Amino acid sequence: MTADFILETKGLTKEFKGFTAVNQVDLKVRRGSIHALIGPNGAGKTTCFNLLTKFLPVTRGEIFYNGRDITSLKPADIARLGLIRSFQISAVFPHLTVLENVRIALQRQRGSSFDFWRSETTLDQFNDRAHELINWVGLSDYVGSIAVEMPYGRKRALEIATTLALEPEMMLLDEPTAGMGHEDIDRIVELVRRVSAGRTVLMVEHNLSVVSTLCETITVLTRGQVLAEGNYETVSNNPDVIQAYMGTAHG
Fold first, then answer.
1. Domains of the chain, each with CATH number or no CATH
2. What is d(CA 114, CA 111) in angstroms, rounded to the nearest whole number?
């Protein structure tokens, strides 16, 4: 593995009782880039994410992060190395405020225990940094809002803020614009672009207009295998990619 690539897989494979969900995937993510995993539904994209972040054990193959073999590490170990993921379904505390969510993430990043039962003043030390992150993702008007009551796009922005609180070197975003209208999509695209400054982003995304706008490299999966890779122009004109997408509901 060269220094140019922050994340690399070799022969990455995941089998479920005879069904091969991910099959011999070789992936190289260039440091400082925005890289997309795309493909029809059921192509193995989210399974790949789960393997990379160790939410699923690898059947065969190897995963390297910053030149280190992380194949056998646990999810918490991966996070401590700076490889942080978001989820397709917003993973924030729904009944806490925006500020409380971000403060808890900051507390976790510093290795503190979760002091839910102690005075709220325990978390006050994180207020300044929490407000910085909240403002940075465009949620300054929602500081005191309860997460569950916020518009969907704002919840995703909050999730990105809590992910940033963990100070990731590389972020894995699982369908960050899923279920959004045009206004929210534009907002999240701009946020991802800002987030990518100084770090690497690997994202699963169905929306090809988002991918074409953001991503320098695109890996196309189908039936758990790499079908094509390159920039948007290359993969969008690939006959095999066009065939794989024919008849699917999403781009």
1. 1-82+168-251 (3.40.50.300), 91-167 (no CATH)
2. 9
